[in-house]
Design a protein that fits this description.
Number of helices of chain A: 12
CATH class of the largest domain in chain B: Alpha Beta
Number of strands of chain A: 0
EC number (chain B): 3.6.3.20
Number of domains of chain A: 2
Strand order of the largest sheet of chain B: 6-7-8-3-9-10
Strand content of chain A: under 5%
Distance between the termini of chain A: 40 Å
InterPro entries (chain B): AAA+_ATPase, ABC_transporter-like_ATP-bd, ABC_transporter-like_CS, ABC_transpr_MalK/UgpC-like, Mo/tungstate-bd_C_term_dom, NA-bd_OB-fold, P-loop_NTPase, Transp-assoc_OB_typ2
CATH topology of the largest domain in chain A: MetI-like fold
Distance between the termini of chain B: 36 Å
CATH architecture of the largest domain in chain A: Orthogonal Bundle
Strand content of chain B: 25-35%
Largest interface: A-B, 20 and 24 residues
Keywords (chain B): ATP-binding, Cell membrane, Hydrolase, Membrane, Nucleotide-binding, Translocase, Transport
Largest sheet of chain B: 6 strands, mixed
Helix content of chain B: 25-40%
CATH superfamily of the largest domain in chain B: P-loop containing nucleotide triphosphate hydrolases
Domain ABC transporter (chain B): 7-237
Shape of chain B: globular
Protein name (chain B): sn-glycerol-3-phosphate import ATP-binding protein UgpC
Oligomer: heterodimer
CATH architecture of the largest domain in chain B: 3-Layer(aba) Sandwich
């Protein structure tokens, strides 16, 4: 009898490992190993024709910390994240609340909001390039109606990063809205009715009932938005290429430049590792701190 | 108690895209009474309740609560509370927060809130569970939280939409008694929607039986059981329901009548002495008695109750007898004919 149970247990264990292995193999091959290899290469110096690569401990990291461009890029990226994350979440929530209410043409509204997400980033960036074009662009044309002077939104350091931020928000809000919409539909109708009978205003209902029930979704979206803020740089290639004078350069773009424009793989690797470390820490804080204050159904 | 009814519905109708919701609902409800809206699913009983609650606005008619016309008022202005079928508890709030949610919204001072909550929890036997979330409670406990939330504000009118349908049979029995006691102790008016006639008959002072969006009969449980207004009521109320017999089968009546007969008025007699000779179609042992289903051409739902275990084989022929005084007479339209 006992032997039989042991056999069954082992069978279950093997079964479990078999189910896990495809994902585990692919992840190891394409995520864990590259991360580890990146870490290793960040500890070696750049290989040139005259000098072979050698182990230099954390010198690459020290170089980065001494590089003013690196700090500028970090500052840009923090600013970019600090604006895009809360704003796109707030807009997504507002749109979802609206698209979830009983309005005519609800399907149309939802589709319209979701369209930016469906567009490839490169196409979207080209679209916005046209909006921003000085003189010809939509923004300037509208501005000229009111007698405003032409502005080169992408060409001046003061506005370039803002222009990029707006494109990101426009692109992400619709995507996050879908998650909020899905979550809103899991909230039973009769909670609203119960609140109505108690004389609860729409605003109080949203604040006291809907928002807390949406917390798990908000948490998920926050982590995603944070990752996107370092991950999404496609539009930089089209819109600004990080310029002017690095005003709109973000970390991943800088890493790409370091690796494929300056051919300095070790420094790019070091920067990648820093980004990974920061992302891990922030995600952990979000999950462990906010998770405890979140109600899961 | 005043003479004017507490809740009045006057010729209320609600339709959806031309489809029938409810039609011509007129109802007077006295203060302090327990009224059950009874009917099969889709009969419009929940719609009627939602109209009263202000969750739906009627297309026609008028609704008065406590002498005030509330036909188009918002739910919150009607001074009533409601228990939902799903309980509609806020899942992220604790029991205590759920109960005082409404008081908080209405800005009742903290001390009074605490006092009222304590009393509501005491009445519903929820003390000690204040800090649990609804997800950590059993079905019966959740039901009591919904009740506590309904009574905490001290509203005089409480609407209940099938509050027991998510409980198991045993719990349902005890909660039924609790609700009835609660209603009596607090002296509140309860309007209670159910599809379960046992609930309606055992709890209500007045039962409103509905079908296809219309009221079939309003009356005491005694009225509905002993004086059904039409054949639908006769067949709906009672377990087993009233048997319907075409008058031509029995003879001695006008040919187009339908006659109703309750199982307890039927007895099995020896061959040749009964009014009707039937075939046994089924026999069900219920414990204290045995229900024997009978079939005969021109009859529906004919049955007889025998004390104790008295199973009969299917297909057996038996003779039955009954007193003609116990027959209910319905005309061709199925409406009750006044007793002559």
């Amino acid at each position: 009898m006992n032997k039989h149970i042991n056999l069954e247990k082992r069978r279950q264990a093997i079964y479990g490992w078999l189910l896990l292995s495809p994902a585990a193999v692919l992840l190891s091959l394409f995520a864990f190993y590259p991360s580890f290899a990146t870490f290793v290469s960040s500890l070696f110096s750049k290989k040139t024709r005259r000098k072979p690569s050698e182990f230099i401990e954390l010198e690459n990291y020290a170089d980065l910390f001494a590089d003013p461009t690196f700090w500028l890029v970090v500052k840009n990226n923090l600013f970019y994240a600090a604006i895009t994350i809360p704003v796109s979440i707030a807009i997504a929530l507002a749109m979802a609340l609206w698209a979830n209410s009983k309005i005519p043409a609800r399907g149309f509204v939802r589709t319209a909001y979701f369209t930016p997400t469906v567009l490839p980033m490169i196409a979207a960036a080209n679209l916005w390039l046209f909006f921003y074009t000085p003189g010809l662009g939509v923004l300037d044309q509208i501005g000229s109606l009111f007698g405003l002077p032409s502005v080169n939104w992408l060409g001046q350091p003061e506005t370039a990063l803002w222009a990029v931020i707006i494109v990101t928000i426009w692109k992400e809000a619709g995507f996050f809205m879908i998650f909020y919409l899905a979550a809103l539909q899991t909230i039973p109708e009769d909670l609203k009715e119960a609140a109505d009978i108690e004389g609860c205003s729409r605003w109080t209902y949203t604040r006291r009932i809907v928002l807390p029930l949406l917390m798990p979704t908000t948490l998920f979206i926050m982590v995603n938005a944070m990752i996107n803020s370092v991950k999404l740089i496609d539009h930089l290639f089209i819109l600004t290429k990080g310029g002017p004078s690095d005003a709109s350069k973000l970390i991943l773009y800088y890493i790409w430049e370091m690796a494929f424009a300056f051919f300095d793989a070790p420094h790019a690797a070091a920067m990648t590792i820093l980004v990974l470390a920061v992302l891990c820490v922030v995600a952990a804080i979000q999950f462990f701190y906010l998770d405890r204050r979140t109600h899961y159904q | 108690m005043t003479n004017a009814p507490f809740v009045v519905m006057k010729a209320v109708a609600k339709r959806w895209n031309g489809q029938l919701g409810v039609e011509d609902i007129s109802l007077d409800i006295d203060e302090g009474s327990f009224v059950a809206l009874l009917g099969p699913s889709g009969c419009g009983k929940s719609t009627s309740l939602r109209l009263l609650a202000g969750l739906e606005i009627p297309d026609e008619g008028q609704i008065l609560i406590d002498g005030r016309d509330v036909t188009t008022s918002a739910a919150s202005d009607r001074n009533l509370s409601m228990v939902f079928q799903s309980y509609a508890l806020f899942p992220h709030l604790s029991v205590a927060e759920n109960v005082i949610f409404g008081l908080k919204v209405r800005r009742v001072p903290r001390a009074e809130r605490a006092k009222k909550m304590k009393r509501a929890l005491q009445i519903t036997g929820l003390e000690g569970l204040e800090h649990r979330k609804p997800g950590e409670l059993s079905g019966g406990q959740r039901q009591r939280v919904a009740l506590a939330r309904a009574i905490v504000a001290g509203q005089r009118l409480c609407l209940m939409d099938e509050p027991l349908s998510n409980l198991d049979a045993k719990l349902r029995n005890s909660v039924r008694k609790d609700i009835k006691k609660l209603q009596r102790d607090l002296g509140i008016t309860v309007i209670y929607v159910t599809h379960d006639q046992t609930e309606a008959m055992s709890m209500a002072d007045k039962v409103v039986l509905m079908k296809d969006g219309r009221i079939q009969q309003v009356g005491t449980p005694d009225d509905l059981y002993n004086r059904p207004a039409n054949t639908f009521v006769a067949e709906f109320v009672g377990a087993p329901p009233m048997a319907l017999i075409q008058s031509s089968v029995l003879g001695g009546f006008d040919a187009s009548l339908t006659l109703g007969l309750r199982a307890e008025h039927v007895s099995i007699v020896s061959k040749g002495e009964g009014q009707l000779s039937c075939t046994v179609s089924e026999a069900e042992f219920l414990g204290s008695e045995t229900l024997i289903g009978l079939s005969h051409e021109g009859t529906v739902g004919l049955s007889v109750l025998q004390p104790g275990l008295a199973l009969l084989d299917e297909g057996t022929t038996v003779d039955i007898a009954f007193d003609a005084a116990n027959l209910h007479k319905f005309n061709q339209e199925g409406d009750r004919m006044s007793e002559v």
